[in-house]
Fold each of these.
Amino acid sequence: MRQSVRFAVALVLCLVLCLSGVMVGDSRTYASSVGWVERRPAGDVGRQWYALASDSTGTHLIAAAFGNYGTEGWVYTSTDGGASWAQTYPNTWSSYWMAAASDADGSNLIVCVWAGLVYTSSNGGVDWTTRYPAGETAQRWQTVASDADGSNLMAGTSTGRLWISKNGGSTWVETRPAGNVDGDWRGASSNADGSVLLVGNYNGRLYITSNGGTNWTELTPAGAADKNWQGTACDEDGSNLIVGVEGGRLYTSSNGGSSWTERRPAGDTNRNWSRFASDSDGSILLAADEARLYRSLDSGAKWTEQQPAGDKDAHWTCCSNADGSYLVVANYAGGRVYSLAVNPLARALTVAKTANGTVTLDPAGATYDDGTVVTLTATPATGYTFTGWSGDLSGTTNPARITMDGDKTVTATFTASPTYTLTPSAGTGGTITPNTLQAVLQGGSKTFTIVANAGYHVADVSVDGVSQGVVSSYTFTNVTSNHTISARFEQEMKQTIIVLQIGKSTFTVNGISETLDSPPVIKNGRTLVPIRAIIEALGGAVGWDGTARKATVALGSRSIELWIGQSTARVNSISTRIDSTNLKVVPEIINSRTMLPLRFVSENLGCLVVWADATKTITITYQP
């Protein structure tokens, strides 16, 4: 449990309470008081209560009374929120108990005496130990502060002395801002770990340290120099501060004092602010002067007068538990002590919707503690679209968050979703599925599958005229407009392999045996074959002109004309030697069959020809 309570009092007393807890992004706000309960010790009337502090829960309290002019002053502790008290002053009674502070769980306490000593207790006030700095037996102590576990302490006097202890008061080191030799220190406060310390003096300056007192920085608000600083308070991490002076000035800061905003209650221009208390995150504040007690639920932006009925002008001192839900106040004009338990406000959240859809709440409920953050998630029904929030929530963010700082009404708007058309088409050689117009609701999805027929492959798929490459499926997601999708296919380009052997009338086409009219022969060092069966196996054609004794071979875009007995042919109408190194290589008629030079014809038709001498085998490969 992390918390620190700070309290400082003198003739003008300041109470500082820094309470811990887990800091959250939203501040808790509480209902108006339902009634103060008087909590002063039994039979003890007329005490001048100058010191008051609480643990983080509001269970363990310490209160100290100023006896005034020789009358007895007492120190009391309570373990039940002030319902009962034990008289537990250190060593002997004193007339001048001035300031007190408590750690987070109420076990480590510190009190000081005007013109006397400083005392600490590690067991909630049952036993006390003298803890003043060595040799300082009669300082005019008037302000003390403690961190969350009671190890880091600060104590100041009205004569300018300021001390820091990092071991619960066992030893002390004097520290003070440069140049301050007679500071009349007031309003000491600390954050949870004791690194940030805040202190003011009655001579006009306000200081802070962020390293436990090693170095100090003046934080006096602009225009407030030379004021009589009386009270300060800070939150758990030392970022949210509140300070006050005589004459009506009251300031808050949300950035550790780098900048200040004047935050006094409306119309109160001349208060002598001297006592403050804060919850753990600086959202709930108490501020008191010699006549009035105020509470703020929004870090000082607005204030409400809060003192118990009939006890105005009572010189209040005050403290709070960590979340601001339990307040304790005392006065030193009428000698009374009061407590107030306040309950979180119940805020109603009403959710409506315009059409088919649902809204879920996290956390679920119809009413919430004030300050609760609720997440709303809108889910449209099929065929509907969520279009936005209205009422106390606006925009289209989904899920959305709302802070319950009042009763809220929210409407979720759902509208019927528009329908869009997807138009598919496919070229020759394959299909697209589905292949008809598809109606899709806004925000919907649709997948199309593209399949090529045998002998074809997908060449391209385009969506709205933009190529998507070679894909086998395409999915439209979150559809918000009409679209087209088309598939284009291309025929597979097959490779043909023909194998022939000299002297054999059979040959193979892609492994399938076929028959020639006449076997291949070698003449003049070149292979001659009856070409018709080979060319037709490749998908070409062969023509014969008996008058001109001319053979015409065509395959694809190429054609060759050859004449019997001539060493020159025409390839695509261009005269070409059949074999420039051997003019004897010419087309011939052998055994009544036209025999053509195999390599010349095949290579000029775009085929690859390979000769295997060992087996007298010719392999022709054709790729269209």
Amino acid sequence: MQLTNPTTIDLKSRLEELKQKVFEQTEAVSDRMRLFFGNKPKFIIFLSFSDGKSRAYVCKGSGNSVESSWQNAVDSMNSRLKKLKTAPLWIKADLVKDIKGYSFEGFMSHVSKIRTNYFREGIALDEMFNLAFLEQQVNANVFLYDNKETRKKQVSWKNIMAHIKYNMGLKLELDENSCKNIWLFSTIGFFHDGTTCYNLNNDWLNNGRRDIEEIDENLLRSVIARSSAYLADQVDSTGKYRYGYFPCFNKEIPGYNILRHASTTYAMIEAFEVTRDEQLGQAIKLALNYLAVEGIESLVDENGVARSFMIERTRDNEIKLGANAAAILAYSKYTTVFNDGKYVQLMTQLAEGISYFQDKQDSSFVHVLNFPDLSIKDRYRIIYYDGEAAFALMRLYGIDRNERWLDIVERAFGHFIRNEYWNYKDHWLSYCSFELVKYKPERKYIEFNLKNAAGILDFCLTRETTYPTLLELLMATCNMVEKMKEEDLDLDLLESFDVEKLMRAIEHRVEHQLNGLYFPEVAMYYKAPQNILGAFYIRHHSFRARIDDIEHNISGYCSYLRQIFVPTSENIVQT
């Protein structure tokens, strides 16, 4: 995923590699093109190119042979490069392989059944493909959107016309009356990053990103290194993050969330265990300092107990249970990985803050307090806060062995078990139950962990969204299963738990989550590729790349790497 120098392999050589890949597919698509165009098949080839800083331009060539189609596409590309006076860093070739015709009404009926931004076909506005757009162009330029009032899919003719002007230099007036029919198509694609030529996937959910035959240790380390380096690049000199982008039109996400600042930093420290990258380490230290200076307030109660709270600097200055937890997780991970105890006292005060949230009657946690009077604002905000708080206290207990934290967690878990919290399928509760079993290997905690995963395995195998916390949850249960086997802990519980399905779900999520990574062949179609390259994104949230979207993917992949490829005794510290 590195930005390779376009002179590494000259343009002619790169095009020749792509050409050979495309020509190998001629026989595979000939019969399909005959079905659409008649006895004389017509071949349609797209060439996309980007300098790595600007949205890709897409040129098209068509003809009665694949050779003439290719040459027409290359000629169009060379003409465009001459006008732009630029050198392409990335080049992608697409050969059309299937075409389906719809009336405009039929097309709208078709897309209305598809989740927002999960439309994965190209669109042609005329039968001869004079106005035709790859799936990546359709999505990255928001040709289709959900009307907020009617909740129905609509075509943005404004965006289509703007992209035609950008890509082709044509100023057209289009609407549904000028496009009575729509043709949808799929392609076989190949991508050259300046060094290597990749085959691209062409099935629905994987469409357009590189085909990866095997997810090995080198690939995992590369993904973790690149995405964590991306996060490090988002940290400014004060330690604050650039919060994220809506990349279709390169809009920065407004606002800030100090909880996500803390949890993102935690994931970066997990990545640092893998990479030991110096720049990443410096960014982590800046981010932790920002958290301490800008995010935390300390109070002393009438009994002289010092408590610290993470403050969300909004109009209300609220205190979230989950924010205190995320801060402890970040500082505790820093303490063990960097072997530096500078934040231990602060963690203790933050833990005392968490204790203030716990109800003395039923041991549940209140979720949100007002600052500075610590009155209750919201008893319940989001399920994640509970498990996150308990997990954070367990991580602190692993450092200072203060029985107070263990007692708070055990009482909280009593509440979780009584109220069947495994039904929430929260990854933090999986993390925490595994951590708790390290010190209290009791059946009830093991059973909770297994129940938390058991009901979600089919969902993990079929869910079309990348949903990164699923891998985190699955890996926490995988770790629990291994611990049970190694220490002979309540193995009868595994008789009713499908370990084989757990492992299939893990392997599927590891592969599927790569569909949420901005590889260059994906990033090139957005307005400013350099601002998202190597980030993870959420497709159904307008392809959003926000710091927490990236952190959860990093955490899941780090956990998978530790469990599957790196024994405890090797480079990655187990904490």
Amino acid sequence: MQLQHIELSKLKDATINMRHAKAAPDVSDILPSVKARGVLVPLLVRPNGDGESFEIVAGRRRYFAAKRAEEDGGEIEPLPCAIMEPGDDAAALEASMLENLARLDPDEMTQYETFVRLTKEGKSVEDIAVTFGITELMVRRRLALGDLLPKIRDAYRKDAIDATTVRHLTMATQRQQRDWLKLFNSRKERAPRGQQLKQWLFGGQQIATTAALFPLDAYKGQTVSDLFGDDSYFTDADQFWSLQNAAIAAKRDALLAGGWADVEILETGRRFCSWEHEKTPKKDGGRVYITVSHSGEVEAHEGWLTSKEAKAKRRAKTPKGDADATEVGDKPVRPELTNPAQNYVELHRHAAARHALLSHPGVALRLMVAHAIGGSALWQTKPDSQAARKEETAESVAKSKAEIAFAEERKAVLTLLGLPAHGHSVVRSNGDDYRVVELFAKLLSLSDDEVMCVLVIVMAETVQAGTAVVEALGIHLKVDMCEYWEADDAFFDLLRDKEAVNAMVRHIGGKRVADANVTATTKVQKKIVRDFMTGDGRKKAEGWLPHYMAFPFRAYTKRGGGRLSDNTARIKSLMS
């Protein structure tokens, strides 16, 4: 038997299951828990004949509860499953899992405390997972709670914070957590949660000047201060990251010059998991891990090795009596080329390599895509943050057909590149040229069609929302918004202009209906539009779109639609 997390779409009810029936079971008793905490008890499954999916042998109600939660608009992650192997007895396996789980406290914070104690006793994540019959991912998630401030952990334990919000907070820096707590405890302000919190952490978060590793006088853009003048922020994020990446690279070089055997710069937003590493001093080959948050904060974790590396070093450690060998092994090696000599060789090799590249456009394409994804000292790319001004807008976009379909395509490309597919964009620039080489090598192994699939996703992620580029793209591709967009409460709530709404009534219902309701309230007129769209008491307007959603964009009054109208006017002559 092996334990792993499996996507909901790859699971199906098995006919062997004694509770198998056409009708879905009643899951009302466990649905609130699944929505709040997810599925905690692993399902018992076996591989299906097609090799791509799994049949559920035990855990049918948990499966249907997860499906129901997803249908209600919730975020359901892959479910923990125990995969049966040939010869396994289902009844015995299920009894064993239940026995193991019976020893695990149901409270997640208590689980965290238990797991931390076990790691301090020398237990690995794998050991803990085997002990309690759960997946290693579930163990890591509990250990990640240790990065939360104590007050946040207490609020979560008291159910004052939901599971989705806590998951996002585990990715926040200590400073971000403190800022979030202030909002959480405030009577006047509202702390962002769920999808809005994700935007707050990674999309709309301003970069504080305190995060800069470089001298502030090197930054030539403007900074803004908060209302109390306690903090100031950079207004030019591109310039900040250009300077910050150069400073991070310099920090890496200084650490290497200081005698550290290796310095690893993690991808932006990736956390350093101390429980997967062991403290190792510099003299024993310890490594430095540099983490960079989306808000620009940089931390250096000095003196660590992965648990596997540390164990290997202990096994191969030189005997105590052989001190001379240890000193020779630890002594830094002086390269045979001086820095000026290295520079001479580098420049000549650079000139020859880039001239050779001119004859290989396919290789150049792959190298360009690798730079667009990973970045370098000369390349800076980032995905559009899709920052929403209102939480309702963020939720509406997240549930839209276009966003869901795009996420699936992006997941396929992430899998193609061998990158983590959870909660990340393909573009993840951090200026690490070794990372670019790693991506370049992967792209060289892909076909032209596969590389183009990657390039399309990269380009789509880096198209900036609200710009003339989006308008030009929609017009050229003849994008039919009827295929993607459906009117929702968020759309109608944001319509405030009475003259524009009356013009919209005329657009969908004709002049007679509009004139008959010209003095009606905006609320009443919006309901008329909605009734025509749904066919509720009025003839349904099939395939109708408000001017706002169609390409090219059109406003309903001469006052125009702000920058959307400006974009259309500017590109009209260029796209004709």
Amino acid sequence: MLNISYKKIIDKSPVGYALHEIICNSKGQPCDYILIEANAAFEVYTGLKISDIHGKRISEILPYIKKDSFDWISFYGNIALNGGEKEFQQYSGVLGRWFTVNAYSPEKNYFITFFTDISEHIKKQSDIQELLYEISRDFVNVKTENIDQAISDSLEKLGNTIEADRVYIFRYDFDRNICSNIYEWCSEGTAPRINTLLEISLDLIPEWVERHISGNPLFVNGETDLEYIKERKHLRLDEIKSLIAVPIIYDHKLYGFAGFNSIKNTHLYSSLEHNLLQNFSQLLLSIMLRKEMEDSVYLKKEIFRTTLLSIADGVVSVDVDENIILMNEAAEKLCGISYKEAQGRPIKSIFNFIDSDSKKPYENTVDNVIRTGLPEKVSGNLSLISRDGREIPVQYSASAVKNKKMQKKGAVIVIRDATSERNIQKQAEYLSFHDHLTKLYNRRFFEEELLRLDTLRNLPISFILMDVNGLKLTNDAFGHEMGDQLLKKIADVIKKECRNDDIVARLGGDEFAAILPKTDIEQARLIMDRISNSAARENLNNVVVSLAVGCSSKTSPDQNVDEIMNIAENNMYSNKISSGKNMRKMTFERIVDNLFKKYKNEIEQTSAMVELSKKIGTAMNFSQDQLSNLEIAARYHDIGKIIISPQLLNKKRGLTLEEYDLVQRHSEAGYQIMKSQEEYSSIAIYILSHHEKWDGSGYPRNHKGHEIPLLSRILAITDAYTAMTCNSPYRTKLSKDEAVKEIMDNSGLQFDPEIVDIFLDIVLHEDL
């Protein structure tokens, strides 16, 4: 029987796949989720390495996901907790891409996502809409004598957009039972066929004619399709690998067909390209009919009607008195009034335009267009107020309509809903000048404002530079989410204590700054002191909120603003020497206090471990300094457990791989916390290595033998022994004999055999 590895199938799939576990807060509400596994396509789409993010929280992988315009965590949490399956398209601001996502829950608390990156599809769709808009505008304004050139130009635009090798228009003549190639564009290196494909007998292409008469397009996607159509011989002569040809139908009659050919490479034409060709064929029909019937009044109305119905933008036609003659469905939706209700009424009474910023009425200049004959386009801050009061961002263009004698007979107005473009523009503008996390201005904006405000009328101008004390320690001890909360808290404090006209920015990392125009040094110091004092009063879950600050003031135009800023920076660093050290000490004390509150059994175990470690050190003839270091290392050996929740550490059932990995990280966290304390920095290495094993199977660096610091080898034994013999919620307490046997059994494996001998001599011969 065929043995199929579905795991390999998923790994090789071009569709992004990921399995996640939802994380809920104490109220049972989704607050995060963890990546359990994913395939290679996931890495390609997201740019994230699975090896780097496996088992991590999404908020750690993508810190700004909670600020995204779409609430991914709540959405996936609902599926994971309540079941069901959903498919949708969504834009991710964090990753800057569009995705089609299919999500479902295989069992409670878990969800699987299959997704594909459709950013290129969305962009192509937008490009196609823009292309149709441009072609429609060109067709509306083109003079009769320039129609052939306009059609040729449009074919070239189409071909370049979809990368076809040949774009063409054929006209059917059923009276003569022939069809002819009347327009054509070819890519570079593709031989033209317009002069040879003339008066082709319809008997040679029966399947094409049959499909087009029924209103259906013809698709050929590769050699396989060629085998099933009667015209394959003719297509092979032209070396056509794939094509799409759609019928052009007017008034229920087949007029001709438009098509794309691919010759150099096989191109699978999508529904998007199919729709493009269909829409284009309708636009094309109107202009070809216009060319054939010229100034026929009937044809002019049909051209305009066809054009109106074939584009998605609002189109309105007015006479010389600016009264509405025609209006398409898109225009009806924009203004909220039907064509029947608007017909014959002045356009100014139907379409209410305003300036998007000032909200003042915008006088549309249809009368200027009709009077001068010159087109007008407005694509900036223009909005349309619909009948229901909605303010819709729009782009507006108007062109005069003239008869054959160049007499002005009215105008055509095209109104495009620009909501998406305006939102994207606003979002891009906001993000370009603001910090994602704190919502303050960013360094780029700060530097531009510094140049703008450095003028005589703003003197004296002062600067406050600020640096968050202990951000790294907060991240190491309490996690990056808490570090982000600290930064946001600091940002709120600074913003609150500064004035409305002051420029407050996060320069990056833990650095903040403020520009204070028309402010002398005394006022700047008062504001700086308010910021420091306000920060000191804040309480953030046992995290010390502290800032190092410095200020300076420019009082003369001759002074260099960069040098003044350097003075503020030097003052800040001078302040940081004292305030930073004090903050780190306070944070360390809170960590220790919080640790023993979270894990009450740690007090008993730590005390026993300190005493036992000192006895081993004494037996090994340690100096007083060595004994002191050993005692400190034993006392704070598990300080890194502050990063682990009590629920996880006290878990009675076995840990998952992800949970075990988090537990192992506590020795690295402890190392970073101890390094932050100047008096304990030399002890940090012993904390880092106290879970290394003699045979090299420990963590975090897999050191073995004498690579492991001596004091860490002592801690490894005393930690294991006291853990086995002290009370613990997740382990049954062992007797002294049982614990000693465990130590002996692991001598030379987990523990240094020489230290084990010293340990045994102490334990077996002294009353501990």
